[in-house]
Structure formats: C-alpha cells, structure tokens
Amino acid sequence: MADAKREIERKYEAAPGIGLPDLIGVARTAASVPRGVVELDAVYYDTEDFRLTAGSVTLRRRTGGDDAGWHVKFPVAPGVRDEIRAPLSATLPDALAELIRSRVRDRPVVPVVRLLSSRDVHHLADAEGRLLAELSVDTVLAERLTEDGAGATVGWTEIEVELADDGDPAYLDAVEERLAAAGVRPSASASKVARALAETAPGEWSAQGAGDEEPGDTAGGQVLAHLRRQIGTIVTLDPAVRRDLPDAVHRMRVATRRLRSAFKTYRKVLERTVTDPVGAELKWLAAELGTVRDHEVLEARLSHRVDEVESALLLGPVRGRLERWGAVERAGARRRVLAVLDGERYLALLGALDALLAHPPLLPAAGEDAAGTLTRAVLKDHDRLTARVQHALDLPPGPGRDLAMHEARKAAKRTRYAGEAARPVLGKPAKRLAKRVKAVQSLLGDHQDGVIAREALRALAVHAHGAGESAFTWGLLYGREEASAARLELRLPHVWARASEARLRAASKS
Predict the structure, then answer these.
(1) What are phi and psi for residue 100, nearest 5 degrees?
(2) From CA 302, how far away is CA 454, in angstroms rounded?
(3) Nearest CA-CA partner of 47 in 112, 95, 143
(4) How far apart are CA 60 and CA 79, in angstroms?
(5) How many CB atoms lie within 10 A of CB 147?
C-alpha cells in the first residue's frame, strides 16, 4: 500500500560562514523548537539515461527518520511535489513501479546516487504551539554509484523549509525574505539527486539535462514544439490517472486528441505514412480513456438532472438506482483503463511517440515560414467545420441531425486545437478564433451529452420497469433532455455566426 503526501518546501544554500538567522517574529513564528539530529541513508534510482531526473522525478529507498521506505516524488508546481510512499522492502514495490512506468518504459531502474545526510531539525511554531513549518539543515555527502562516475563524492550543506500540512504558502515567502537578508540564497538544484549527478559528473549530466530546443520560425519547428508539449503531457499525467486524481483522465485524453488532430491539420508538414499509424493508436487510447471520462460526465449530468426534479415527481427509488448504476459502471471503467496503462500496446505507443520526436517525419513544407503555413492549415480546418455545421443546420430535427451535430463537434475540436497550436506564432487572431470555436464546440458537446443521456435514461427506465418500479421519472428526464437539445439547436446559428466572424478576421491577418 502506498501513501501520498503533498510536499510544499523550499531549498536553500548558504555561503561558508553564513549561519541561520533568527526567525522568531517572522510572520507568526513564536518559537523554533529543536527536534534533534536524524541520520538518513538514501539510495536514489534512475534509468541509465536518467529519465526520471530529467523529468524532475525522484525515486529513492531511504532508511533512518520516521518515514523510512520507498519514495517517489512528482513535480506539481515550483516548490510543490507529491510524494508517494511505500513500506521499506528489498525491491521496488509494484505500486511505485507502475507510477514511473510511463517515463522508464521497459528500462530497469538502477542505483545512481547514495546520499548520507545528517539532518538537524527545528519546528517553527506559532504562539499556540501550532506547527507552521519544519526547518532542517542537512549536511550531505553524495556518492556516485553509476559506472561512469563510481566512487566520486561531493558534499554540501542544504537548508530545507517545508510548510506544515494545510499551511499558507505566504508563510514561506516571509521566511525566505528573512533568509535572503542574511545571505541565504535559494538552491540552484531542484533536488539533491540532481545536484549530486551534476557535481559528480558535470559534463555527462549536462548533456542529459539539456532542455527543449527553440522551435524557430519554421513550420516544422513550431509543429514539433506543439507535439513535444502534448507528448510530455501524456507522460506526466500517466501517474495521475493511475492515482485517480481529479480531471487527470480528461486532461490525458485531451492531449491524445490534440496530438492526433495536429497530425491531420499539419499533413503538409508531417509525413502521413509515419503519423497515420501513430494517430490510429492515439485514437484507440482516447477511446479507452473515454470509458472513464464519458461515464464521469454522464453520471454528473444525470445526478444534476435528478436534483432538479420536484420531490413530488420522484417516483420510485430513483436516486438509489442511479447510484448503483454509477458505482458499477465507474468501477468497470476504472479497471479497464488501468489494464490499458499496464498493457504492452500502450507501452509501444509511448515508444512510437519517442521515435517520432527523435526522428521527425518532416516534409519539405516544414522548412517554410511558420506564419503562412499555420494560417493556411487553421483556415482549412475552419472551412471543413463550416461545411459540417451547415449540413447539420440543413437537416430536420431527429437522429440524422444528432449525428451531423456530433460530426460537427469533432470538426470544431480539430479547428480549436489548430488555433491554439498556432497561437504562439499567429497571436491574437488565433486566440480569438480558438475562443469562438470553443463556444461552438461546447454547445455541440452539450447537445451530444444530451443524446448519450437519453440513451442511458431509456436503459434505466427499462431496468426500473423490469424490477417492478415506476419508470415515470426516467421518462420525465428523457423529455427534459429532448427539450434541452431543441433549445441548443436553436442557439447554434447565433454561436456559429460569431465563430465565422472570427474566421474572417483571421483570414484578413494572413
């Protein structure tokens, strides 16, 4: 079993001869309580090409202190990390191995650095004795364990200030101000292991830690930068999906769709014989993630609809049936997604995305000016959307129009994603276009959600009737969904007109 903890801390280093200043009186600090010195022995693990450290992820096995065990830390924001802990064992626990799988793939993790730390701990407390933060001064000795630098050592002293649970981050700002006045500066390294690697083999590590290349002014550079961001999002969100964090499935699914959409939008920049097979696998992944996301949306929608029904019209165990249906569907969808993330097909897709970035399938148009190429691609997608919206509006209400509006919704997503991807180059016209098209997408999405909701309501009514329950409320909800769909269809021409206006403005800038 693994436990999670949100860690908000800041790291500092002091020049020789500079000690800790008195922190009493800083913000609400009334006492600095010594908690003794703790001896910590931690071995940090990574792949041979340092995939974890390059992604600011740390994995360690630590003894000593009150949290001995295996720890993996994921970055959340500057100075904020999620630490997942598992009990001490001889080998890496499966629960943690799963969380780093999207980064390490099939590569083994090996010991890379051993850190021996003598930690002098102080609790900063307010006048009532409530803990505000834990301050520690770590005297660190790091030893390189990899073959290229085995035996190399480096030492330093580091100061850490970790905010108490549910503490106000503004307190850390006040402490940092006092430390800065005393000559204590923020650490240049985000983690001890990154510093140890950099200082025990600086030339080798600097190559591993190189940042992304500048995209440049060419169409190929800009498109690749966009692809790199989406692929990074998928890899980063994998552990969040496994941990069932809020909105993680949705965000990961959107990243897969943005990638696939980019492959289609920029077909004159990217070679289709390479991107089409990858796009097909992205479509598969998005569909699998959809088993969770679509149910989340549907369940929330139906619960909201039930809440709107007057109590006199709630006939039968409506809420109970909905809750049981939701729990069963939710559990099944969750099991399916985890099986996908643990499968070889998903691992192969991640490898294909790596290969695409390593050897970009660029066509001659990739060397052209980014502004012109991206503008033409975005406007072409918008023209495609125009045709689909007009087709939907020309049809009478019914299943045919429902399907046409769903197809228009997919075209709206593609156009929106194209506009957002082009925004770094095209600026405000692309931003405006994406915003207006997003409004169209939202309306069409709400309409499609209503179509799916009606299908679910009919199934729930059938099951209720078969169990001898009243199906009246389910029929009432079905009718309300039909009425909602009709209102959305009446609003579509107005919302679409605004999106068409944005298209004309974007064209005038090209």
Answers:
(1) -105, 5
(2) 10
(3) 112
(4) 19
(5) 8
**What is the model's pLDDT at position 66?**
87
- Give how far Cα 244 sits from Cα of 105, 230, 331, 334, Å: 20, 20, 12, 9
Mean pLDDT score, 400-427: 95
Query: Which residues touch 100 (CB under 8 Å, ≥6 apart)?
Result: 52, 57, 59, 72, 109, 239
**Given pLDDT bands bounded at 50, 70 and 90, which one contains residue 507?**
low
Identify the burial level of 306 via C-beta atoms within 10 angstroms of its C-beta, where 0-12 means exposed, 13-18 middle and 19 or more buried: middle
How far is residue 357's CA from residue 355's CA, in Å, rounded to a whole number? Answer: 5
Helix-then-strand count for the chain, H and E: 15, 9
Measure CA of the first residue to CA of the last residue in the chain; give whole Å. 56
Q: Are strands 3-14 and 184-186 parallel, antiparallel or unpaired?
A: antiparallel
Q: Which residue has the tokens 């909105």?
A: 247
CB within 8 Å of 354: residues ≥ 6 apart: none
| C-alpha dist (Å) from residue 104 to 54, 107, 110, 195, 343 | 11, 5, 11, 21, 14
Report yes or no: 7 and 83 within 8 Å, Cβ to Cβ. yes
**Helix (H) or strand (E) segment spanning residue 117:** strand 110-125
Above pLDDT 90, what percent of the chain?
81
Q: What is the pLDDT of residues 459-486, one digit of tens each?
A: 999 999 999 999 999 999 999 999 999 9
What does the alpha-carbon distance between residue 252 and residue 246 come to, in Å, rounded to a whole number?
12
What the block records as the tokens of 314 is: 């709630």
Long-range contacts formed by 246-251: CB under 8 A, 24+ apart: 249/289, 249/292, 249/293, 249/296, 249/337, 250/293, 250/296
Give the tokens for residue 244.
Answer: 């069932």
C-alpha–C-alpha distance, residues 332 and 20, integer Å: 54
pLDDT reported for residue 15: 77
